[in-house]
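Fold this sequence, please.
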Amino acid sequence: MNEIYSEKISTFYFITITLAITCLILFFVIIAPFLGKQLFINNNIKIVIAIILVFDLIVLFSFRTLNILLTEEKLIFGFGRFRKKLNFSEIEKVELGEYKFSNYFGYGIRFGRDKTVGYVPRGGRGLKIFVRKQPTYFIITERAEELKSLLEKQLSLVDARRG
């Protein structure tokens, strides 16, 4: 699997910092009794806080960076373990696009009002990837024109082999 293109896009720092601060607060609420601090929270609420902390940590570490990898066989993109692998035979076309908050209402893996699935660590330019028998995907990239060109080149090679 030869790598043609690779990119890592970080989320906005304020999102990462906000999640990290939330994790710290939740952690200190849980360990406060062990430090001799008296918090009047019953055990059921402590369990809920612990579950929220675990979920917060998963989100913090999973959604920090969007990874994009283009190989000779496929396009792979996603956050941490939440990845999508598309064979070139599944891709119909690609277009340049612009992230609109009014479409996705946030960052991460988002379902857009335009029926796309967005992989958006932050705002900016990206690619719309039209796929057979699947939803259209939108991914943010700092080098949208370059990725589009390389992807279209690989798609034309696949079409030439088929036809």
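The first strand starts at residue 3 and ends at 10. The chain has one domain: 1-163.
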